[in-house]
Design goal:
It is a single chain. The chain is mainly beta. It is built from 1 helix and 22 strands.
Length: about 240
């Protein structure tokens, strides 16, 4: 399900809900927010508390025909800001300023893994792990993209650098190691992460992040060294503390 709420503040929050559980939330530079999620996780207690306060003002967006929504990102199409939502049918798209929801059909089944986005001039490049391998797609408009499959790169999760469409991290499907490509997938190398990793991410300042049952890590030097976060796993939620 995707939910939508109009905030009174200058920035919006994307948040994900299924039943009463929160998967995550994401900020957008607009008063409108759209919100997807899954029942496996609960978000931070603060978000849950705020959602309870907002529940009377939240309404479903027109995305039910696209199936389950699992991830969402800010993106750009033809110079205009959009929200991209990974769904069972593909990538749902809507302009941040409002308008109709559209769908970019998935090239390989449901978009169940986290989606990431890189800026490419006036448009965006999306990355995802679909069917167990890396896929990259250049967004052409709100209903189409040019997708490229990288069948030799098996993955669990992939994360593209938001500032460089040729650079991405991925966790491999066996061994749960963190790998990197800086040339669009032509070559890859193992970053020799100190533990197994499942989730990977790159932020806009170029820092790397990983997460798995062994804990969460951050690298501020392109994977040369990693700083561990204190992680306490409990049934209800995950608490991430300050770096050691």
């Amino acid at each position: 399900m995707v939910l939508k709420h109009t905030l009174t503040a200058n920035s919006g929050i994307l948040f994900a809900v299924a039943a009463v559980c929160v998967l995550g939330f994401f900020a957008v530079s607009n008063k409108e927010c759209v919100c997807p999620a899954s029942s496996q996780f609960q978000g931070l207690e603060r978000v849950v508390r705020e959602l309870k306060e907002l529940k009377e003002h939240v309404q479903p967006a027109e995305t039910g025909r696209f199936g389950l929504a699992r991830s969402f990102r800010n993106g750009t199409i033809d110079g205009e800001q959009y929200v991209f939502v990974g769904t069972s049918a593909g990538i749902a798209t809507v302009a941040v300023g409002g308008g109709a929801w559209n769908l970019i059909p998935s090239p390989k089944g449901a978009w169940n893994t986290p989606m990431s986005v890189a800026l490419d001039g006036s448009t965006s490049v999306v990355a995802g792990c679909l069917g167990g391998v890396v896929w990259l797609g250049t967004i052409r408009n709100a209903t189409s993209a040019d997708f490229t499959e990288l069948p030799a790169i098996t993955c669990a999760v992939v994360a593209i650098n938001p500032n460089d469409k040729s650079h991405f991290l991925y966790s491999n499907a066996t061994g749960w190691q963190t790998w990197e490509s800086t040339d669009g997938g032509r070559t890859v190398h193992n970053l020799h992460h100190p533990t197994g990793s499942f989730y990977v991410a790159i932020d806009r300042q170029g820092w790397y992040y990983t997460g798995a049952e062994a804990g969460a890590y951050r690298s501020m030097d392109r994977g040369k060294t990693w700083q561990a976060y204190v992680v306490q796993m409990v049934w209800e939620h995950v608490l991430i503390g300050i770096p050691k």
